[in-house]
Design goal:
This is ATP synthase gamma chain. By secondary structure, this protein is of the alpha/beta class. The chain folds into 2 domains: 4-21 and 258-288, ATP synthase, gamma subunit, helix hairpin domain (Helix Hairpins); 29-197 and 218-256, Pyruvate Kinase, Chain: A, domain 1 (3-Layer(aba) Sandwich). Helices cover 61% and strands 13% of the residues. It is built from 6 helices and 5 strands, in the order ααβαβαβαββα. The protein has a 5-stranded mixed sheet, with helices on both faces. Strand 4 (172-182) and strand 5 (185-194) form a beta hairpin. Helix 5 (151-166) crosses helix 6. The longest helix has 75 residues, at 223-297. The radius of gyration is 28 Å and the shape is elongated. The model is unreliable at 201-212 (pLDDT under 50).
C-alpha cells in the first residue's frame, strides 16, 4: 500500500491534470462556436454550387472536349483519396474514425484491382495511414501552427489536385473527412470530387407524369466558358467546406474528450482522497495502539 506522501503526490498530480483538461475543454468550447457557425454557413453555398455545376455539366457531359474536372479521364483505374484529419490529438476517436474509414475504402478499392494513392491533409491522418499504406501516400499537407484555416488553404489543396489530374496521376478523386452533425456526433464521409457527380436523368420518362421536372436554363456565355471558370472554384469550395466541417468536428470531439477526462480526474481524486484518509486513520490507530500497549507494559 502506498504511504501518505505518495498518495499526496498522486492527488496533487491528478489535480494539476484536471486543471489542464478543464482549461482545454473551455478553449475547445470557445473555438467550437466559431467553427460550427462557419461550417453551417458554408453548407448552403457549397450545395448550391454543386447543383449549378450539375446543371451545367449535363449539357456538356457527352462532349469529347469536356473538362477533365467534370468528366475525369474516362478511366477508373487509379483513385486518389484526399483524407482530411486533425493536426493534433486529445480529441477522442475523431482522427481514428476517419482513419479507419479511409483504410476500409483503400482495402475495398484494392480488392477490386484498383490502384490507390493517398493525399493526407492533417498530421494525424498521415501518421495513422503510414503504418499500413505508407507506400500509397503521395503527399502530406499540414496546417499545424495556423490559428485559422482560410479559403486560400483550400485553394492550394485544390490546385495540387488539379495539377496531379493534368499530369495524369489519377482518374478518380474522392474527399474523405468527418462531417459535423452535432457536438457529440461526427460522421466519416466520402465525397467524389473528380469526375463530378451528376444526377441521373431519365430521358424516357414521359412529360407531365407527376415526376419532378428538371429545370432548364439558358447560359450567357456558353456552358463551356462558364465551366472553365466555375470548375476550379467549385473544387476549392468543396475542399474548404470539408476543412470547416473537419475543424468543427475536431473541436466538438475535443470538448467531449476533455470533459470526460475532467470528470474521470475528479473521480480519481475522490478515490485517492478516500484511500488517503483511510490510510491516515489506520496509521493514527496503529500509533495509538502502540502507545497504549507501551503504557500498559510499564
Amino acid at each position: 500500500m502506498a504511504n501518505l506522501k505518495e498518495l499526496r503526490g498522486r492527488i496533487n498530480s491528478v489535480k494539476s491534470t484536471r486543471k489542464i483538461t478543464q482549461a482545454m475543454k473551455m478553449v475547445a468550447a470557445a473555438k467550437l462556436r466559431r467553427a460550427q457557425s462557419q461550417a453551417e454557413a458554408a453548407r448552403p453555398y457549397a450545395e448550391r454550387m454543386a447543383r449549378m455545376l450539375a446543371s451545367l455539366g449535363q449539357a456538356v457531359a457527352g462532349n469529347p472536349d469536356a473538362p477533365k474536372l467534370l468528366v475525369g479521364t474516362g478511366a477508373d483505374q487509379v483513385h486518389l483519396l484526399v483524407v482530411v484529419t486533425g493536426d493534433r490529438g486529445l480529441a477522442g476517436p475523431f482522427n481514428t474514425n476517419v482513419g479507419r474509414f479511409a483504410r476500409s475504402r483503400v482495402r475495398e478499392l484494392e480488392a477490386q484491382g484498383k490502384t490507390v494513392k493517398i493525399l493526407t491533409v492533417g498530421r494525424k491522418g498521415a501518421t495513422y495511414l503510414k503504418r499500413e499504406f505508407g507506400s500509397r501516400i503521395v503527399g502530406e499537407i499540414s496546417f499545424q501552427g495556423k490559428k485559422r484555416i482560410g479559403f486560400e488553404d483550400a485553394s492550394e489543396i485544390a490546385a495540387r489536385v488539379t495539377g496531379m489530374l493534368e499530369a495524369g496521376e489519377f482518374d478518380v478523386c474522392t474527399l474523405i473527412y468527418n462531417r459535423f452533425r452535432s457536438v457529440i456526433s461526427q460522421v466519416p464521409s466520402a465525397q467524389q470530387l473528380i469526375p463530378a457527380e451528376l444526377p441521373a436523368v431519365d430521358a424516357t420518362a414521359p412529360a407531365g407524369d407527376g415526376a419532378q421536372a428538371q429545370p432548364w436554363y439558358e447560359y450567357e456565355p456558353d456552358e463551356a466558358t462558364i465551366l472553365a471558370q466555375i470548375l476550379p472554384k467549385n473544387l476549392a469550395i468543396q475542399v474548404y467546406r470539408a476543412l470547416l466541417e473537419n475543424a468543427a468536428g475536431f473541436f466538438g470531439s475535443q470538448m467531449n474528450a476533455m470533459d470526460s477526462a475532467t470528470r474521470n480526474a475528479g473521480d480519481m481524486i475522490n478515490k485517492l482522497t478516500l484511500t488517503y484518509n483511510r490510510t491516515r486513520q489506520a496509521n493514527i490507530t496503529k500509533e495509538l495502539i502502540e502507545i497504549i500497549s507501551g503504557a500498559e507494559a510499564i
